Amino acid sequence: MVSRLFPELCALSSINVTLEANPAAEGLLIADSLTEEQVSEFKEAFSLFDKDGDGQITTKELGTVMRSLGQNPSESELQDMINEVDADNNGTIDFPEFLTMMARKMKDTDSEEEIREAFKVFDRDNNGFISAAELRHVMTSIGEKLTDDEVDEMIREADQDGDGRIDYNEFVQLMMQKAAKTIADERAVIQKESASIRASFREESGDHSVRRNNVAKLLYLFTLGERTHFGQIECLKLLASPRFADKRLGHLATSLLLDENQEVLTLVTNSLKNDLSHSNQYVVGLALCTLGNIASIEMSRDLFAEVEACVNTSNPYIRRKAALCAMRICRKVPDLQEHFVDKAHQLLADRNHGVLLCGLTLVTSLCEADEEEGGEEGIIEKFKTFVPGLVRTLKGLATSGYAPEHDVTGITDPFVQVKILRLLRVLALGDPQVTEQINDILAQVATNTDSSKNVGNSILYEAVLTILDIEADSGLRVLGVNILGKFLSNRDNNIRYVALNTLIKVVAIEPNAVQRHRNTILECLRDPDISIRRRALELSFTLINESNVRVLIRELLAFLEVADNEFKPTMTSQIGIAADKFAPNKRWHVDTMLRVLTLAGNYVKEPIMSSFIRLVATTPELQTYAVQKLYTNLKKDITQESLTQAGAWCIGEYGDALLRGGQYEEEELVQEVKDHEIIDLFTTILNSNYATQVSTEYIVTALVKLTTRLSDSTQVARIHQLLENHQTSLDVEVQQRAVEYSNLFSYEQIRNGVLEKMPPPQIKEESRVLGPATTKKAAKAANRRSRVVKPTEQDLLFDLMDTPPSTTPAPGGASNTDLLADILGGTSSPPTSASPQPQQSNVASIMDLFSAGPAQPAASPAPAVGGGSNMDLMSQMSAATPPPQPQAAPQAPAGLPVYDNNGLNVSFQIQRNAEGMVQAIARFRNSGSGPLSNVGLQAAVPKTQKLQLMSISSTDVGPGAEATQRMMVSGAKGQIHTVSLKRIDQVNDNVRLFRLGIPDGSSIKFLPGQWLDTFVPGIVKPGGFTITSPPSRARLPTSPYLELAVQRSTNPPAAWLWEKSSIGSQLRVRVGGAFVWPPQGVDLASLRRVVFVAGGLGVNPFASILSHLAETECPYDVQFMYSVKVPEDFDSQKILFMERLAAIYGREKVSGCLQLFLTGRDQAENPITSAETATEEEKAEEQEASEAVAEQPTASGGSSLSCNEIEVPFKSRRMNLDDVVEALGPAEDHNYAVVYVCGVPSMTDEFVEKLATPEGFGLEPRRVLYEKWW
């Protein structure tokens, strides 16, 4: 309120020259238009004059104030001033007269001279600024002693440029705020001026200055939120004008008054096209700015060539604007990205800081768009080569000396530094190799940047975000957390807010580092800023664990006492969850919840109250204590609804314990409770205004239960009477219960049995976590780490076929389009027994995919391997005529012919297995006389399906030679099954196993290695999670199930499973995936060796495959190589599937070797045994189950592992190609082996490239199967 008086005080400072006599009636009329807030402010200003508080300002009081303001009026002047305002001529000024004077001053605009005089009163040293010290001096001189905070608040209200002082312009604006007219007057002026502008537009004045003036007025109206549509054409006329002054205003107005949805935008395109080719760089710059603001999809396609030319120009002024315009175009039309990717490479190498800044912005936008699309365009990979150069540039900026052209408060070009850090964050996300390249520069920036100014803090904040988003080492993350801790001590509320907001995201990554700043975070709970209190509260709950739960809950309960009501519902819920999860003992748990019910019972949600009641019901030793405490608290306060309901329930159930009394605290004996006191308490509540419908229902039920627990018949009769009174209740539920309970008195023989104590309720497993929901940005990062990506870069046409192709057969027989549709999930007719024959019609619909002309008739395709499954795919082909005889030469590859032209013959062999997965082998035969090079196939599938396109056997095909390429299509919409969640097992902090029960009578078939598309409640898009149990578990005669391994993630389905699922939750699932056993196209009869290469979560599909091989007692030599990152405090129990793998090899269900590669720790090579982590309970359960294959043991108990001790050798280093080659065995056995690789893209790409290419190890591509995990 003090700061709002500043304008009034400024006006009063020049009262001797501004008071004017006006008719009293006019003054009263003006005063009536003041708001209540304005009247309140003037009342406080009046009290500064009225020193004795008698409601009158005398000449003496007025003179005292005037002289304190540096003016020395005489007594006669003072009397004249009084007389000018004194309407009733009593020689003094009362408040209504003062109010009339001030209202009149607000109506009259102060002259320049008057405002300057007022400014001089405060500007005592005449330096043109009002400082805090000068303001404090003036306020003290008139008797107002303000604190430093109050003076700072007054300065901040007027200080627009943030320099801590008020200059004359700011003073004028502050004064004019109080001189504003009424809203009605302002509206009238606006309407009048709008009409004038319309009339001027209709007159079509030839004077360009008139049009510019009108458009400028339109822009001002636009800032006021007024309608300006009638001036759009005038903006375009200015834009098309040859005069630069017109063009400049026209481009500005077009950017602001038009958007991409306006119909008149089509008229702008040609003008922009001309301006983009203009010889004046500033005209080109205006056009680029306008296009960057309003570009629609059509404009982007029409003008991208001109923008591309602008990016190529040597003029840095144009290049930097063109880069930002290109960013808008790429966002609107992603197809045009390829035109600017190479140009962006040049921008990143530019030495001009402005061009580099805009280039970084463009590249960051391209990479983020690629990330949102799943990384399938490969843009991020293309820009990763620039990481070393970006690191050098950032290092140069961070360590350079003073550069005046780029210096901002002592820091060299902070804008470029921030942009580089942001781009590095995008490029390094989920890529350990890039992370290693930037670790050093991040540490250098975080250590050396000056944090005393906001510019340095902005760089530090961006560096911290980068450190926390990428897979940085622990030491660097701790450094980032410590920087955020320093931010918490900053006086700037914005910096404290972003620190708290970021720490909320970090606490799951580095909890111990965040815990060090716990006291500082708790201090933020007392901050005056409500947004900081809210974020501090949110962060405080995420810090709670077993070791600090007492301290933190005590602080939070203290805050709950004084917290705003809007905080209380969330606080009570989170305290209840924390107490339920981390309570050191039951007594503490009960005391905590009693305190919550007492402090904020009106804000406790029903699940929390029910949880407390369940706690009391399942803890017999504390029931007496709890009911006595509830009774005592209810006697003191009946206003808290949840306290009333919990107390009523417990007193009704355990009223006998309350009456028995007894010691409930070591130092205090509870006061004796009589029967009538309980009834009196309930009667008081029922007769009060706090008896809500639900509370009444609780009390009515408690009363009838007390009839079997009270010994005083008089009180039982009182209860009967109370129940009868409620038989006429307006609430149907209460009335019905009262009638039923009253009738129970007629059945004494059963009443005691009906009103017995309730048995303790069954406690269901719940998956509740503390803290906030994950952010969109974190979801992107998790998606890049956990997503299964397409195996090769050849799958670039991933989205060409959004709609299913037509499957209507052509007259006389089905076209080959039907076969393609069948591969991609289309329908087909029942198979026929006749052999398929070649089509006489054109197959151009298929060959359009290959840019081919019409095909020539080809020989009949031979049956595919697999026993006639081709018949299903080609069942719609006509069988009216017998197949022709094969032609002698040139012989086409066996299979379905799709292309025969230009010396290249292409055919497909197609199979579909029982699980709906389609395998197609493309055969390329050179039928010409010369060699063919760069031979390859590109394919696309709808979004609902997944394509795995293997590498071609050879891109160079000589005359008469042949090359093959295999692809797998899966994910065609199959049957959706309903399952229920039966068990949740915690493997480690990041992985949980979810067991899904299959209902009786249902059957879910899948191949080892496949995944489930999992639909969770409330989320449309399913999540894909690998099945880690073998198929046999889904076929068990009793309790069949599927097991999923789910990583902690912000991906919505995964987050739901981690945070909201509970035992019994219903889910819908669908089988999919092409990375399976058995390997397609490999003869199992000749197979001798299988090598599994797993990196991190890539072990998931192998858990199912290896368990399946163990059950079937496979004859192959199985080499299992498992690389996993572990912390320093190594715990083998927390390595995903470690015990299951050890058990399989320990029982010798498969022959071969299990090798472990541990990264992230310094330790010599040592064996670990599977027996280290198997508990006695787990061994007993395993022996009782007598299952052939052990199931994964978990930290939460359940199905367990018991196996003969087996030493699992491990190596403290990364797995390399030599390890895989060694596992493959002698070279002569390589044609009898198959390798499965699953892991992060960097590892998978390296191994597959070197194993399956002629330049590498030379394995046949069909013998190397792989899948990538992020």
UniProtKB/TrEMBL annotation:
Entry keyword set: Acetylation, Calcium, Cytoplasmic vesicle, Golgi apparatus, Membrane, Metal-binding, Oxidoreductase, Protein transport, Repeat, Transport
Domain GAE: 891-1008
InterPro entries: Adaptor_Complx_Large_Subunit, ARM-like, ARM-type_fold, Clathrin/coatomer_adapt-like_N, Clathrin_a/b/g-adaptin_app_Ig, Clathrin_app_Ig-like_sf, EF-hand-dom_pair, EF_Hand_1_Ca_BS
Keyword Repeat annotated: yes
Composition bias type Acidic residues, residue spans: 1174-1185
Region of interest: Disordered: 800-840, 854-896, 1167-1202
Compartments reported by the entry: Cytoplasmic vesicle membrane; Golgi apparatus
GO terms classed as biological process: cytosolic transport; intracellular protein transport; vesicle-mediated transport
Segments of skewed composition (Low complexity): 803-815, 827-840, 854-864
Entry similarity comment: Belongs to the adaptor complexes large subunit family.
Record text on subunit structure and interactions: Adaptor protein complex 1 (AP-1) is a heterotetramer composed of two large adaptins (gamma-type subunit APL4 and beta-type subunit APL2), a medium adaptin (mu-type subunit APM1) and a small adaptin (sigma-type subunit APS1). AP-1 interacts with clathrin.
Protein name (Swiss-Prot/TrEMBL): Calmodulin
Organism annotation: Colletotrichum karsti
Species lineage: Eukaryota, Fungi, Dikarya, Ascomycota, Pezizomycotina
